[in-house]
TrEMBL record:
PANTHER family: ARSENATE REDUCTASE, ARSENATE REDUCTASE-RELATED. Keywords: Arsenical resistance, Oxidoreductase. SUPFAM superfamilies: Thioredoxin-like. This is Arsenate reductase. It holds the Pfam family ArsC. Its EC number is 1.20.4.1. CDD domains: ArsC_ArsC. GO terms for molecular function: arsenate reductase (glutaredoxin) activity. The lineage of its organism: Bacteria, Pseudomonadati, Pseudomonadota, Alphaproteobacteria, Hyphomicrobiales. It is an enzyme of class 1 (oxidoreductase). It catalyses: [glutaredoxin]-dithiol + arsenate + glutathione + H(+) = glutathionyl-S-S-[glutaredoxin] + arsenite + H2O.
Amino acid sequence: MEVKIYHNPACGTSRNVLAALREAGYEPQVIEYLKNPPDRATLKELLRRMGKNVRDVLRKRGTPYEELKLDDPTLSDDEIFAAIEKHPILIERPIVSMGDKAALCRPAETVNDLIARSKT
């Protein structure tokens, strides 16, 4: 099974999730999303597999979220995707993809549920 983590090595939660995956016997493909952000199609597919919309994965703290006024409910998904493309730091992390499932693993313990669901 292909396992990927959209990872920020400076983030403690992201490091903890990566460690949990390795402890569970997985060696995921580590994608440092600030250096290699997912394109729009990839992000849309991850969102579909997570059952979330683009607003659900917006990171507010330590990002230009407020400056860009991304809390405006009239913004379209396309406008939000465009902001993410310019500022990948807006993606909440870590996102883990396991086979046909994916999850935003914040808090870190969320990865345990994803691991369990991926074994069924």
